[in-house]
Amino acid sequence: MNKLALIFTAVLALASTHTLAAGDAALGQTKSATCIGCHGVSGNSVVPSFPKLAGQSQAYLLKQLREFKTHDRTDATMAGMVAPLTDTDMQNIAAYYALQTVTPGVAKKDANIALGEKIYRGGKKSTGTTACIACHGPQGKGIPAAGFPALGSQHAAYVAKQLKLFRQDSINAQTGSTKPSRANDYEGMMINFTKSLTNTEIDAVSEYIAGLH
């Protein structure tokens, strides 16, 4: 079975077992007041290093908040932000941001869009790297039912940072390094995707993603 078939099978399994957490968006809006400084009004950050949250699936947002709290995903700032939140608070915040509309992103004029599109839509055949489109869709809208996040219009700088953190997990495993990394992806999919990408390729696909909408 090829990689795309395996991913499709995983999507079906996740979609069939996934239960959307309840959440009160109105209460979430009130609770999200402390998030505005980094993530902007309605979850549309203006600082490229902070992700846009608007329009992201409720399930994915809740998963990330919970994992910041359990330290399965590491970020000093976010650890401090989620520390006082209850699980109900996090459900409400996730519900609020999921209902917001993401602002259209724009790729840099000098970005290598052709390379980014090639990787996003076709993967990297020389290393068996699966195409991003398999999990995140042609317009980067993700697959909410399976927990795969929306990427379209996300800041390129943020996407590139996360891809390099996923790649660092592989580097750490190979070299014994303990540099900051990220490993809270489903079944190591993102770790596997990034392990053979160069910085140039990561930057290119991140810019391409920024322009998807």
Note the run of SSEs as H and E.
HHHHHHHHHHH
Q: Roughly what fraction of the amino acids lie in strands?
A: under 5%
Largest sheet: none
Structural class: mainly alpha
Give average pLDDT, whole number: 93
Distance between the first and last residues' Cα: 31 Å
Number of strands: 0
Q: What would you report as the Rg, rounded to the nearest angstrom?
A: 17 Å
Low-confidence stretches: none
- Shape category: globular
Task: Tally the helices.
Answer: 11
Portion of residues in helices? 40-55%
What does this protein look like?
The protein is mainly α and 213 residues long. Helices cover 52% and strands 0% of the residues. It contains 11 helices and no strands. α7 crosses α11. It starts with a helix and ends with a helix. The relative contact order is 0.17.
Summarize the SSE layout with pairings:
Blueprint lengths: L2 H15 L7 H7 L4 H4 L18 H13 L5 H7 L4 H12 L14 H10 L10 H4 L19 H20 L13 H6 L4 H12 L3
Helix pairs in contact: 2-6, 4-6, 7-11, 9-11
Offer a concise description of the structure.
This protein has helices at residues 3-17, 25-31, 36-39, 58-70, 76-82, 87-98, 113-122, 133-136, 156-175, 189-194, 199-210. With 213 residues, the chain is an all-alpha fold. Helix 4 (58-70) runs antiparallel to helix 6 and helix 9 (156-175) runs antiparallel to helix 11.
